[in-house]
Amino acid sequence: LRLNGQIYSQWDVPNERAAGWQQSSAPLGQIGNTVLDGHHNVYGEVFHHLVLLKPGDIVTLESHGKPYYYIVAQTMTLAEEGQPVEIRQANARWILPTDDERVTLITCWPYNANTHRLVVIALPIAELGDAAQMP
């Protein structure tokens, strides 16, 4: 989307019980930030229980029949609706590319209002020792 000469990207969240992959993010299981988004209150609610995750929980994701195991390192609920552009841009830093392998899971929150973004950062099980070094 181009607005006043500025290019903006837009979330492409599936309107079915599936998580969407942000195409500018890393493929699952590779170095970089794999960003997945999904609905929590409509279209099958694929991320309905995302809010229950806490640091130390194990997340299993599957791609092309292969499982990938991650441990939750950090969870955040970030105000989004009605926030100034600076706050929304600061919130967006969690979907930027990274030098480490990680998965970022994102949905709207709360269930009846969608005024915030729920963000869950998870690291590969093999890199458990790096969780304390999250930015």
Structure in words:
There is one protein chain. With 135 residues, the protein is mostly beta strands. 6% of the residues lie in helices and 37% in strands. The protein is built from one helix and eight strands. The strands form two sheets. The chain has a six-stranded mixed sheet. Strands 1-2 form a two-stranded antiparallel sheet. A hairpin with a 6-residue loop joins strand 7 and strand 8. The radius of gyration is 15 Å and the shape is globular. The C terminus is likely disordered.
Task: Record keyword descriptors for this entry.
37% strand, six-stranded mixed beta sheet, mainly beta, disordered C terminus, 135 residues
H/E order of the elements? EEEEEEHEE
Largest sheet: 6 strands, mixed
Q: What value does the Rg take, in angstroms?
A: 15 Å
> pLDDT below 50 for ≥5 consecutive residues: which ranges?
128-135
Spatial shape: globular
Q: Nutshell version of this structure?
A:
With 135 residues, this protein is mostly beta strands.
What are the SSEs and their pairings?
Blueprint (H helix, E strand, L loop, with lengths): L1 E2 L2 E2 L12 E2 L10 E6 L20 E6 L2 E14 L5 H8 L8 E9 L6 E9 L11
Parallel strand pairs: 4-7
Antiparallel strand pairs: 1-2, 3-4, 5-6, 6-8, 7-8
